[in-house]
Amino acid sequence: MAKRGRGYFFGYGKYRANPIHGKDLADFCVDVVNSTDKEFEVGGPDIMTHNEMYALACEVAGVEVKTMNIPNWVKSTALFFTRKFTSSRMYGPLEFFMTVMSMDMIGKQVGKHHLKDFFIQKNYQ
Hints:
Blueprint: E1 7-10, E2 16-17, H1 22-32, E3 42-43, E4 48-49, H2 50-61, E5 67-70, H3 72-85, H4 88-100, E6 108-109, H5 115-121
Parallel strand pairs: 1-5, 3-6
Antiparallel strand pairs: 2-4
Helix pairs in contact: 2-5, 3-4
């Protein structure tokens, strides 16, 4: 979104997450492979709002932060019509994406790989 010049957010970008690097997730999995727990909530070291993640991407890309906030009723309406008029193959992934983007997704903070370093490494400049 930063490269295209505009970020789109449900709930005004205030939902938070801590994205995790694949290496950090792999290390965590190795550490808990013998655990008797069946479920883990895990994330990366940095907890940020969607707005903060987008602003960080814009900073690395060297572009101005421009956002468009989408009210949650638009999401609900779009999902309603998508469910009614398309197959689960179409609405399933869309519903998953829209749901994830409209809630906090925070796990135990683990790892050492930071989002800013990832953006720089991927050459989002």
